[in-house]
Design a protein that fits this description.
Layout: E1 11-12, H1 15-28, H2 31-47, H3 51-55, H4 59-62, E2 63-64, E3 69-72, E4 89-92, H5 95-106, H6 126-140, E5 145-146, E6 149-150, H7 158-171, H8 178-185, H9 190-197
Antiparallel strand pairs: 1-5, 2-3, 3-4, 5-6
């Protein structure tokens, strides 16, 4: 049986740090990649998508900006520890993310079925997404929250952005519970959400 356990979050960012990363990636990236990299970071931070899910997205099949959703088929989603396959789901996008994606898709330098093409291929790899996120963190000189204080920019990964969604929902936005975080991040159980994020929920 294939088993996955999501580990306790050890690195996460505040909203202004993600904003700084987005500004920095626009400044530091080649002009034709700037809107892609900005939209990529914005989408990861809005949706909490895992990298494998994000790179599997196709424009025609999975992105509906009129309805403001990303359609996520069961295939790319992580198998649950129980081997109970996740079902098709739609993830609502913030208005600002929709605007960012419209700007990106309206002027892409490369036509590709994939939402996120790379310079070398029609679809970005996991490693190329990691590189974009890390480079943005370094360029912005953000020092993320960690279990022992502040970390280094090099500690920031795409999964850090997923953890940062939970931080934002629990500490910045009003009215969210662990159940809301569980639904957004699509954990198999509320126990997973509590185990991963209990320590970042302020008391």
């Amino acid at each position: 049986m294939q088993t996955h356990t999501e580990e306790k979050a050890t690195v996460w960012l505040k909203p202004d740090q993600v904003g700084a990363m987005r500004s920095a990636t626009v400044e530091a990236s080649a002009t034709y990649l700037a809107t892609r990299n900005d939209a990529l970071i914005a989408t990861l931070y809005d949706t909490g998508l895992r990298v494998s899910e994000a790179i599997a997205l196709d424009v025609e099949d999975h992105v509906d900006l009129d309805d403001g959703v990303i359609a996520l088929p069961a295939g790319p989603q992580k198998d649950y520890p129980t081997d109970r396959s996740p079902s098709y789901t739609e993830i609502g996008l913030a208005d600002e993310t929709v605007r960012t994606l419209r700007m990106y898709l309206g002027g892409r330098w490369k036509e590709s079925p994939a939402l996120w093409p790379s310079r070398q291929a029609d679809r970005m790899s996991t490693e190329s997404v990691r590189n974009v996120v890390r480079a943005a963190a370094v360029a912005a000189d953000v020092r993320p929250m960690t279990l022992t204080g502040r970390g280094e920019p090099e500690d920031v990964t795409p999964h850090t952005l997923r953890h940062s969604v939970a931080y934002r929902m629990l500490n910045v936005e009003d009215g969210n519970t662990f159940y809301d975080v569980r639904n957004r991040l699509r954990h198999a159980s509320i126990q997973t959400t509590e185990r991963v994020y209990d320590h970042i929920d302020r008391v």
